[in-house]
Amino acid sequence: LWDAKKNQGDPLALGLSSNPQKIHKAAGTRAIDIVISAVSKHSLARRSNANNSLTFVIMSNDLGNPAPLGLIAFGMTTMMLMYVEMGWCETDFEASIAGTAMALGGCGQVLVAIFEMIKGSSFSFAVFGSYGFFWIGWAIVYIERNRKDSYFQDASYSDGNTLWFTQWGVLTSCFFVVTWRKNPALIIIFFFLMITFYLLAIANAQDSTGIRKTAGYFGFVTACGAFYTGVAELINEEFGRHVLPGLRPVYRPQRVELTSDAVLNLT
């Protein structure tokens, strides 16, 4: 087995004997887990060579990292809305927020979600897809309510909004649990976002301006965290090392050096 990055771009190749017993031994659960983990970001081809041995060939097809765009889109859009919630600007500013929510926060994150699915990241697909459509939905509702001929212009659904914020809080709580295996930056982002949704639900239920403003501050911290994480990923990727802190994985799987002998000796 050799590393493409260390051998002038050659593909990784692993030769396994075609003997059924040896294949069974080499392709045990542990071996397969390690091989699949190693090639999750590459295309895998299998062939038999002249010596009747089975060869796995890993061809590099790495895509760019779409996550920074999703994080920046979420952070920028959330930050704009929190300006209103914190009382830093006029409520009419929500008209500009609706446009950004539809384009950057909505379509931008949905696009990122699609590319994350192509890369094989179910978590990122679910997160960016969920919050992307959240912003698209928010923008549609805002535009509809502000139409002169809208049937919902004067509609009041306080209980519905409370439940709506609560269910987004529950979903974010589930995402928060998953981030315990990610990195500190994501843990902080989802913690503050979870608190933001629950505070907005409480503020809506009690019609409390003070609690809503507090939720705005929590949301602002969330937005800043998302923006920082997106920029940090770009900078760290460009420099090839952790220049900005907070992105080192909390959970690091056991690393095994893959050699032909090591794989054949796995049971």
What key phrases describe this protein's structure?
three-stranded antiparallel β-sheet, mainly alpha, disordered N terminus, 3 strands
Q: Which spans have pLDDT < 50 for at least 5 consecutive residues?
A: 1-49, 52-60
Share of β-strand residues: 5-15%
In quaternary terms, these chains amount to: single chain
Q: What is the CA-based Rg, rounded?
A: 24 Å
Give the overall silhouette: elongated
Roughly how much helix do the residues carry, as a percent range? 55-70%
- Average residue pLDDT: 80
- Global structural class: mainly alpha
- Give the helix tally: 9
Describe the main β-sheet briefly. 3 strands, antiparallel
Please count the beta strands (DSSP E, at least 2 residues each). 3
Q: Give the N-to-C terminal Cα separation.
A: 19 Å
Order of the strands making up the biggest sheet: 1-3-2
Compressed to H and E, one letter per element, the order equals EHHEEHHHHHHH
Task: Describe the protein in words.
- There is one protein chain.
- The protein is mainly α.
- The protein has helices at 20-26, 29-39, 67-85, 94-119, 122-145, 158-178, 184-206, 209-239, 260-264, and strands at residues 12-17, 42-48, 53-60.
- The chain has a three-stranded antiparallel beta sheet with strand order 1-3-2, with helices on one face.
- Helix 3 runs antiparallel to helix 4 (94-119), helix 4 packs antiparallel against helix 5 and helix 6 (158-178) packs antiparallel against helix 7.
- It is elongated and about 75 Å long.
